[in-house]
Amino acid sequence: MSGVWQTDITYIQLTNHRWVYLATILDREKRKVLGYKIGDTMTAELATSALQMALDKHRKPLIIHSDMGSQYTSAEFNIKCQNYGLRHSCSLKGVRTIMAVWKRFIQY
């Protein structure tokens, strides 16, 4: 088992000026993307699909960490975590230090 994975969603502007959302799962220790999903809407399904991709390809972590966005506080995402025995932790609103690794990654 790995230690901690982090997840968040950002938006990307494509060359045709269309916007899409990118959900990523990042191994906090290795600073490596383990799973991702691109979609037109920022939904729980988007977040859950990225998590499933990571779980399908990598050993599960002890903890999955996110912010308190509705995608991550949804029943769908939390049921997925429970089904795999993952502890889901969330940053307190306004506290950005825990998500700093993910934020640095996504800037590039």
UniProtKB/TrEMBL annotation:
InterPro entries: Integrase_cat-core (IPR001584), RNaseH-like_sf (IPR012337), RNaseH_sf (IPR036397), Transposase_IS3/IS150/IS904 (IPR050900). One of its GO terms (biological process) is DNA integration. Residues 1-108 form the Integrase catalytic domain. GO terms for molecular function: nucleic acid binding. It comes from the Bacteria. This is DDE-type integrase/transposase/recombinase. Pfam families: rve.
